[in-house]
Automatic annotation (TrEMBL):
<keyword id="KW-0808">Transferase</keyword>
<dbReference type="GO" id="GO:0016740">
    <property type="term" value="F:transferase activity"/>
</dbReference>
<comment type="similarity">
    <text>Belongs to the ADP-ribosyl cyclase family.</text>
</comment>
<dbReference type="InterPro" id="IPR003193">
    <property type="entry name" value="ADP-ribosyl_cyclase"/>
</dbReference>
<keyword id="KW-1015">Disulfide bond</keyword>
<protein>
    <recommendedName>
        <fullName>ADP-ribosyl cyclase/cyclic ADP-ribose hydrolase</fullName>
        <ecNumber>3.2.2.6</ecNumber>
    </recommendedName>
</protein>
<dbReference type="Pfam" id="PF02267">
    <property type="entry name" value="Rib_hydrolayse"/>
</dbReference>
<dbReference type="GO" id="GO:0030890">
    <property type="term" value="P:positive regulation of B cell proliferation"/>
</dbReference>
<keyword id="KW-0520">NAD</keyword>
<keyword id="KW-0378">Hydrolase</keyword>
<dbReference type="GO" id="GO:0005886">
    <property type="term" value="C:plasma membrane"/>
</dbReference>
<dbReference type="GO" id="GO:0061809">
    <property type="term" value="F:NAD+ nucleosidase activity, cyclic ADP-ribose generating"/>
</dbReference>
<dbReference type="GO" id="GO:0016849">
    <property type="term" value="F:phosphorus-oxygen lyase activity"/>
</dbReference>
Amino acid sequence: MDAAPFKPACNRMMFWSKTKDVVHDFTSKKKCYVTIEDTFLGSVLDGLTWCSKDGSKDTFTSDCPGWSDCVNNTVRSFWTKASASFAQVACGNVSVMLNGSISTPFNANSIFASIEAKNFNPAHMKSLQVVLVTKEKEVSNCGDVSLKDLQKELAQGIKYNCQEVTESHLHDCASHSEKPCGPCW
């Protein structure tokens, strides 16, 4: 993290939880928003698995024994530190896409809830815009209990707003928007 620190992208930072494909489809078309995977470190390591094995000095990218069962595995440790660092530089008006097609859009065990939201700094960040992405049939809405928990988790001074948006609307807006940097919610 020290060799390639995250640089603030005020008013353009986008976080996500359980919406990775939707977010990256959106940000690939709307170049105005930046996810952690759009940064140098994030883009290089996104989707990779790596580990070592006893008695070897090599790094392996497959057959990592029990890595998914271990909370402190190398991949999770990297993303935990990277997510905390990315959240610490969040500034201005920040957005997060959460999945409104599941019963708990803000899950206390997610990286967003347990790491990123806890590292937002109200000295730099003005607001959090929750974009609650739903399929055509929503399961959750902006009044969801878990989103009330998110509001309580935010440091004092960070404003909260929530907007329900269908996945198809995001896709259409990003593909056909007249304003290249305008939000689609």
